[in-house]
Amino acid sequence: METGNSHAGKRGMAVLRVVVAVGLLFILLPKSTVHAATIQVPQQYSTIQAAHDAAATGDTIKVSPGNYQGVIINKQITLEATTYDRNNPKNNTARINGQVYIEGGSWAWDQGPVIRGFYIVGLDPVRGKRTPYTLEYSFVEAAGQGNDGVSFESGGGIIRGNIVDPGGDDNIDIDSQNMNILIEDNILRNSNQDGIEVRHQDYFGTERVTLTIRNNRFENNGQDGLQIMDYDNFTNRRYILERNLFIGAGSKASGAAIGIMVGQDTTQNFSAAPMPEPLYAVNNTFMNNEAGISGGANLIAINNIFSGNTLFDIKNVNGNSKILHSVFAATPKQQGTNNLDSATTKIGNPQLDSNYIPQTGSPAIDAGLASYQHTYTYSGQSFTDTVVNITSGQFTGSAPDAGWKESGTTGNPTATPAVTSTPQPTNTNCGPLGDIDCSGTVEINDLTILLSAYATIHQLADLDQSGLVSILDLSLLLKNFQ
Length: 482
Fold this sequence. Notes:
Layout: H1 4-28, H2 31-34, E1 38-41, H3 48-54, E2 60-63, E3 66-73, E4 78-81, E5 94-103, E6 114-116, E7 119-122, E8 126-136, E9 139-142, E10 150-160, E11 163-167, E12 172-184, E13 187-189, E14 196-199, E15 209-214, E16 217-219, E17 226-229, E18 237-242, E19 245-247, E20 256-261, E21 279-282, E22 285-287, E23 291-294, E24 299-302, E25 305-307, E26 312-315, E27 322-324, E28 327-328, E29 334-335, E30 346-347, E31 371-378, E32 381-389, H4 444-452, H5 471-479
Helix pairs in contact: 1-5, 4-5
């Protein structure tokens, strides 16, 4: 039985925890973060640019519905529409007619300026140069050929929950990547050239950088879904492609779902370059493209579905590559030499529904592999990556399904648990809300992680999934603090 004194003692401890947490918050955070302001457009400033110029680091600019000119961003701020549609950003009513240009930031790859909830249309409508940035829940329309919807010219960042349609030349263009980039939950369609185009210029940094592409829909890209121009080099990079849907690549010219090009060639000719950097293609669906996967000498393809690709499914996926636990709608269409594991290959109609998800009776159900590691060497250093790590709670049968979605799920891009090691993993099946480090309880280490991430984008510490770690997340954590 709880006495009045013990109840009061618990309340006192709860109060003490709040006092300590708030004290730590003010001690650990810079003043610019603690005193972050919210600026209203057009109520306080008539243009987004004027609001940006008046803002300080950590400020949020809230933009009401209406039409606005483009903006140059060189501060660590959040630019957010007051209302927006996460499920269909084409309905967004805060419209930017012109370029959003981000430049000059030395922030961490996931700590750059945030642009969220807009309808953006123009020439090269979202462009970052030598900086990280985050673009979320926006509709991006690149007007005309010769420009790209979203671009990185060195740097890194997060592209999440957007629709890019049409994409000009490319929906997303990446040059000289030197920071991690995470591209997830987007729809990339109707580009004249590629869904994502990567120019593989030299990078010899000691810290490996990763391009993670997960849970996206690539639809009717003019050439390739993902194109990598190999530049005939070997850089300290890796590529992770997990749970993506590739439909109709090559709709305007020759194209593959994944096309790796020799040198600097950008017009797809199926040269199928032997790229030495690791590329992990896990749980993707390649449907009705001209070609499936073209090239790769260190490419690990696991749990994928190939159906309706007209020219070939795989070409010259060899060297240190492995193609495991695949489902082909018919006898695999191969060109060149490929390291296809016949023992784990299934052939038969995958019986996909309108969202390209296996239905009852599909050979893709329970056809996948739950765990796999791959080791390779770069510049004398050995890397061992967990390519697949799907826990039993993430599938319903005896094994994971092949393809981009487990049977019984929906087809629209939504946040999914990470299948592989990624720059920002999702913790699932942990303890109570606030157990950020998955220790089973909410304790001082979780509080430290949250406070260090305060006022930033941090997937694990953002407990209320608002997009930014805030005082509300701190309050949620303290409720379960021990």
